[in-house]
Amino acid sequence: MENCVNCGGELTDKRVNGKYKVCYADCNREYTRKKYKEHNLVLDGVTSGTTGTISELAVGIDLLSKGYDVFKSLSPNASFDIAIFRDKKFLRVEIKTGYYTILGRKIFPKGSPKKYDVLAVYFRRTKEIDYFSNGSIDNTI
Ligand SMILES: [Zn+2]
To answer: Where is 64: in which H helix or E strand?
Structure first.
């Protein structure tokens, strides 16, 4: 007999299967929430605005380290988050916070691709940043 990974109780619900074995809806919900928090370093009491700022600063530091001049709009409602400049060229950069599903797959919002040249996605748990241009990963940024 297998046991629930959340409460340790005996698994009797035959509908439960997959990688994580949990009993009933409550355990499933609770375990999913717990795993999601672990996978994404969810900090209690941190607002989505602060989460966005953390991602912006992380991407800003990365781009400055790579030799770009980094510009931030005076208005919080600009059509993209930052502009970067190098080799006589400006690029519009949109910054998003990425998350991991409990199976470890990366998920993130893509925003509106017409409004940026580069999408930068910051994953807080791994401190990884993925850059995309024209819809695919771009390691030249
Ligand atoms: Zn359980």
So the answer is: helix 48-65
Give the Å distance between the CA of 29 and the centre of ligand 1: 10
**Domain ranges for the chain:** 1-40, 48-137
Asked if residue 122 lies in contact with residue 116, where contact means CB atoms within 8 angstroms, the answer is no
**Ligand 1 centre distance from Cα of residue 9 (Å):** 5
The fold of 48-137 is Trna Endonuclease; Chain: A, domain 1 (3.40.1350)
pLDDT digits (tens, 9 = 90+) for 79-108: 999 999 999 999 999 999 999 887 888 999
Ligand 1: centre distance to CA 46 (Å): 29
C-alpha of residue 10 to centroid of ligand 1, in Å = 8
Predicted TM-score (pTM) of the model is: 0.76
**CA 34 – ligand 1 centroid, Å:** 13
Q: What is the spatial distance between Cα 8 and Cα 126, in angstroms, rounded to a whole number? A: 29
Tell me the CA–centroid distance for residue 103 and ligand 1, in Å: 19
Max CA distance (Å), the chain? 66
